[in-house]
User: Fold these one by one.
Assistant:
Number 1:
Amino acid sequence: MSAPKHGEIDPISGQGTTGHEWDGIKELNTPLPRWWLWTFYACILWSVGYWIVYPSFPLISGFAPGFAGYSSRGAVMAEIDSVRARRADAAAGLASASLTQIRNDPKMLEIALAQGKTAFGDNCAPCHGAGGAGAKGFPVLADDDWLWGNSLDEMAATITHGIRAATDDQTRSTMMPAFGKDGLLKRDEVAAVANHVRVLGQLEPEKGANLALGANLFSENCAVCHGAEGKGDRSLGAPNLTDAIWLYGSDVAAISATIHNPRNGVMPAWRDRLDPVTIKSLTLYVQSLGGGR
Amino acid sequence: MSETGADYDGPLYAPAKKVFPQSVKGTFRRIKWALLVFCLSVYYLLPFVRWNRGPGMPDQAVLVDLEHSRFYFFFIELWPQEVYYFTGLLILAALALFLSNALFGRVWCGYFCPQTIWTDLFLQVERLIEGDRRERMMLDAAPWTGDKVRKRVLKHMVWLAIAWWTGGAWLLYFADAPTLVRDLATFQAPMTAWIWIGVLTFTTYALAGHMREQVCLYMCPWPRIQAALTDPDALNVAYRADRGEPRMSLKESTRIRAKGERAGDCIDCFQCVAVCPTGVDIREGSQLGCIQCGLCIDACDSVMAKIGRAPRLIAYDNDENSKRRMAGRSMAFRQVRARTVLYAGLIALVGAVMLYALATRARFALSVLHEKTPLFVTLSDGSIRNAYTLRFSNKWAQKRDFEIAVGGLQGALALSPDLPDGAGSPLKVSVEPDSTRAIRIFVTAPKGLKIDKFSSITFVARDLGNAETVRVDDHFFAP
């Protein structure tokens, strides 16, 4: 068998062959169009243009930034700035408008709720949970039970100055005494009061509990803040003991623990960290979670 | 040794063959002109057709409104979530292409493909400025004289002008056409408009002016697919070799026939090649480069008429009839066969499904999203509350009022903090024309109601205008 010959003409198609042959099958030479070659070269030139205009190859420290000064981070920032600029009017409105005005203006409210949602996720959700779901010791913000009030102004004040925040002299500072730890009540007295609190909350007391003693001690020690009927007092942050919501649990042990040594929960004063518009937005967002008035 | 060494003498890259299609007159040329005028008229003028959709809505019959994510086509308005209709259209388009191929071969390539139509238009411009085939060949070979420069510059200017209008017309489908035309004329149009017109001007000019048949030969997948789809009964433009061969000059054939011997009808005049827009020789049989525009039929028919022979030596024909003629049998065209019936049936089926979906689609939609954090909330009176976000989509051009009823959970109360009359029962929501509205709804199961951890709940929205209802099932969670 003779060696394949380059450029041999295929008798059937009349086309030249490349000289490649496998088991008697010869490859036809079907040349690419020349414009394809030029397009290919043009693409190579185009890519060189990219190196020059855009950030491309690494240098010893850093990288070649390119003449256009483009960066994807910069592009995102420019986009964010343009969105801010487009919202500037409404955002400026947020700064000067009162909370009620914002709530009654659908356009401002939309922006406030959107900002509030983001700020809530960044600042509040770690304790209060996403959507204000709450956790033991951290109040649920989606329910209708509010220690310090649920009007817009009361909520704004709570967020601004915090609760028992050491950094803020206008903070909500009332505290429950440590009745057991400080020796104000004895161990069995604490248990009696705890059982009485369960009765207030329409829960079953323990068998054999001294309810008369509990009621007596309650009116002497607790009613000042929590009210004679245990309905609480929002101006003092004293919880309503007759409802179905228990921040630290509702069994005798949990209530006793609170009476013995209350936690007196703390929330930071957010005016130290957030600007007034963000606090307004947060107030409106938290109110929208379901507990607003 | 070297496989592609010095002794290799074939070219690796082939220069494009210069094609100078000659003008031609005849049936198929007339059909092509008519279709060209029709298709281009639709393309250039459709954006200016108005369609009244009511106040506040665009009045352009065909409009792709990217900014507001709407597609308008006369009485049809599509929202982004309805883009699947385009999938149906693409399936229909593919099936129509298959059917047309099974019936008449590459009829799409020859008559309807934009590449064919604009190339035809550009070729006509070239003919008007530089002359017909012979003059153009001579001009191409001629040295660069003032006359040649003048003709070439004029031709490219006209091409660029057409290309600019082509690119411009494309943009008119994406904005209000009269406004955009005015803005372009007064140089007020946005930069993106100019950039896109520039890009499309370039592609039109390059593809229709310079690339022409190269697009069909090297870029387009359809010729490859078509070759795999064709069958012996599909009609394709074909040279009837059984009648034409052996080809010989008129003089020679007269002499041979006088002797009583057989001579083919083809006189090898090359008119079929001269008029071919892709420069192929149809007498070599069906091939990749043949777009089956039928211009060679016109060319051959006019030659046959001049020499007094029967027309349609080149004709829409198929392998089957070629065999039949050679066997001395009469021709038969089987257009109704399993393949064409199947394609037509599928087209009818897909078309019917799409029409049904379009005709019966709801003009308003409701989606319900259950609040996940928290799944439920215990309220101070011991009742259990779940929160839902309901999104209404009003596809009408008018403001619509809806009523929501919450069912499936006996004794549960629904209220919405987002509605002025949020505690009314049933809840009433009005939604602005052509927009969506989300409202939050709190559903509360009173204390003492026996509920499972996981119960069914339904939201039924009723359009107060026409009593159309949409029902969405969801769940209610409890501790």
Note: Residues 364-477 of chain B form a domain with the Immunoglobulin-like fold (CATH 2.60.40.10).
Number 2:
Amino acid sequence: MIFVNKKILVIILIAIANLHSQTLKDQFSYANELFNEGKYFDAITEFKRLQFFDSENQFSFQSNILIGKSYKAGAKFDDAIKYFTLAEISSRNDEEYFNSNILKARTNILRRTNHQAERILNELLVDTKFKSKENEIKYWLGWNLIFLDEWKKASKIFLENNLDTTLSNLCISVDDKMYSVNFAKYSSYVIPGFGQFYTGEYVSGLLSLSWNVFAGYLTVNSFIEDRVFDGIITANFLSMRFYSGNTQNAEKFALQKNLEISNKALNYLQFQFKGEKP
Amino acid sequence: MSNKIFFLLVVILFPIYGQQIDIHSPKNIKKFADFLFCDKDYLRAIDEYKKYLEVVNNDTIRFKIALGYSLINDQSNALQEFSSINNSSALYEQSRIEVLKSLSLSKSDSAFYLLANNLINSKSQFSNNAQRLLNTSILLNENELPDKNKFLIPFESDDKLLLGNYYDLKINPPYKSETVAGILSAIIPGSGKIYTEDYGDGITAFLLTGLFTYLAYTNFENDHQTRGWIFTALGAGFYAGNVYGSVASAQIFNAKVNFDFENGLKLFLEDKNFFTPAYDFCK
């Protein structure tokens, strides 16, 4: 009789423990449902509630990942990274460790802390445990280069092992459209206004050329007339001002145009690209 | 005998586990809300406390909701919640000084002065705190100040020295006159900027205006009309810019004096947490 009772007691205790575990599972499902419905604020609350009552940390990794994803979806990147790091700490195997780090890198890409993303991805890349994940790591390294405005390098990465030819072609086309900032600047040193013409700013180029010719004429004229001090001052305050202004202007136009090109490409990637994005 | 032990164990253990399982019970909601509050996730803590209040009427929770709103700088809701704490509550006095803080932060001046004077005259435990907050606010908002000694009475000795300096700055702000700066620069280019302590710009303005004036003069003297006019235009531009710049420099100087004064006092107030008491909700 005593033996039977002990068995019943154990069964009851297991049943109660399972009931507790079931409650946590239900809570996880509920929070997950909110997450899937895009109700990120509520999802975070429910995942945090789950973590609070999950004394044995059964759901620690999943809940941290999903809290991180919820924050990421709300563009709260700092909080997202905090929770992905907590997920990394609570990871139970290599797969979970890898996934949390990839999410951390992706969030860093979006947060524009690209060197941090690069460091995380490179650490994963050299880790022999993740040899089979090389393509995935490189894919995000490519995206990181896109956000660093290194379109040519990004296209090369996407081309490796035919990682993503669509992205590679897009990167090549963006890189082709980009203006050379150095060419715009230094060509303007040789012919004032040339850099502006190169970037399609014809009026500005013409004005720059005219001011430089005029200031140059005044400078030369002063020296011809033996008014050396006039010449020095004119050269310093007029010629140099227009000359250096012209090169700075050309550089600024090239940077501005490049920004427009890359923003247009990023806009396309954000709204029309069908593949996986950071 | 063993049946009795078994029965007893089930009776004891079941409620313990049962209690842990219901994570949405009022007690657990409160526990979770407390955790969120201490984790500084105030918005979520407020939501949870509100759920708890639907079941249990508790002034401490109401106070914590109000405090949460105040901490996320939602002063309108904070005022509403603090005001809901009635005078029979143990946290009534605290809520009144917190209302004063919220009124100060929401720049509701008339209500702030009314409540501050009420608190001071009511001889509550926070009367002195209210007096301190009122005096600091007077420094920030009012032009007429009470006598310095009277003004400094409610403060502790360390704060007296600091606030005494602010009091003096309020009475005699070290402003620079825009008119004087403009006139000085009109007479001697750059001197207006030196007056406003913008020494580098002052010397540059003096040298450039002088240089272009000299060049314009010698070019006209030697019948180089084109260059003469160019240097005249440049000299006139620098001269006009120097006068205008000196007036602007005086305005910027005065704005900086005001900014440093207000910023310093606001930092002092934040450091003192607006003279509100410290709470041990997260010990």
Note: Chain A is about 80% helix and 0% strand.
